[in-house]
Amino acid sequence: MIRRRLSGGLWRSSHGVTTPWLNLHLSGSAGSLLKDEQKHESYRLIRRAGFVDVKMKWVRDRGLDHAVEKEKHLRPMVALKNLIKREPRRCLLVSIASEKKDELGLPTRAIEFIRRYPSVFEEFTDAAVGKRPLVRLTAEAIRLDEEEQRVLDGQKQDAADRLLKLLMMTREKRLPLRVIDQLMWDLGLPDDYARRLVPDFPDYFEIVDLGPPRHDPALELVCWSKALAVSVMEKNAIKADEGGCRKGMPLAFPMNFSTGFDLEKKVKRWVDEWQKLPYISPYEDASHLHPKSDLGEKWMVGVLHELFHLFISKKTERNNVLALGEHLGFRPRFARAFAHHPGIFYVSNKLKTCTVILREAYKRDLLIEKHPMVSMRFQYIRLLKMEADGGKNAANAVASAPSESSEDEEDEDDKESESDGDGDSSEWEGKDENLTAMTTTRTR
Predict the structure, then answer these.
(1) Contact predicate 381/119, CB 8 Å
(2) Fewest beta carbons less than 10 Å away: which of 126, 337, 432, 433?
(3) Roughly what angle, to the nearest 10 degrees, separates helices 294-310 and 318-328?
(4) CA gap 263, 55 in Å, rounded
(5) Could you report the per-residue pLDDT of 20-66, keeping only the tens digit for each?
């Protein structure tokens, strides 16, 4: 095997694997081989990378912000609903909900949250427990939960495929259950997926023990699926080109920007050239790529792009992605990619959190392709909006409601969100260390 030195202190073997630089010298025929490789495009792509600090101004996208805002209180409502229905009597002491406030993600005291949504929760008392208040689900909330369970049962194969694809993208082909727990909402998994979903797919994955010191349970890949190891980018390329998608094709990511956002010329020039680099599938081993090279960054963005397509709402909180970073083989501070590529990702600061959204998946605030579980969740959102009339006629309102909010509701919710103090920022600076206004962007 002949090793050839590349820029950045790397050596490439004759079979294409790049390894850390060793103190070796080339001479004779090896030197001529190096000259031949310098003519090869892959060599030039690896060695080309420069840096410049560019002031990246954050520009608000009202539509994508609203996509985040209209799900306000949805997750804590669903979490409390699931807690109640797991009780044998299908009711719960309010004091227990109060004790689990942080676990449920309740934004206020439990009793205040329950009373705010009488269309979902019914407060009552029972002589058996004295004067302590209890809570149960309304008839319409029970009906929607039963419909949700039917949707989850009907989407088992889809959910298993998503979970399998996620495992295939990881470096060690397994993930701790605590990480999957953090992502189950985004992946559209049932809250009891380890019992309800995993045993039904023994050829896909299995639960294992990670061993000492913590003995954490993890989900491990059992069998690689060649049919599922095709990314959305590759599928789109196959649809667009009858000749198919060839390995190493320079596939370009779809991009669009907020109104009023302008790239500096030197950044735009770099983006245009970066888009022309070979696309490396997120299901391929890219450990030989230098993490700071342009090609390495395109692979990383490709992994993130595929990851967001696995999420049923094509968005997630930034912390959820950070939890996956080391498992996907990313370098430290990889979240800066969201700031480097504002045409691919949008970062919203609404609802006092940092939410990353895949731009191409949305038209204004609406998902272009709606997963059945997303449509189900919007029925819950409509039910939450019934609190004004105390839950009266909630069933008729939900049954006649569209799957997502209307433009009139968008304007109303924008006013509400601004009064809540979740306003936008003119720049990313100060919001987060990894999403700063001064971002390091590569240019040629």
Answers:
(1) no
(2) 433
(3) 120
(4) 10
(5) 322 323 333 333 333 333 333 443 344 344 434 455 677 899 999 99
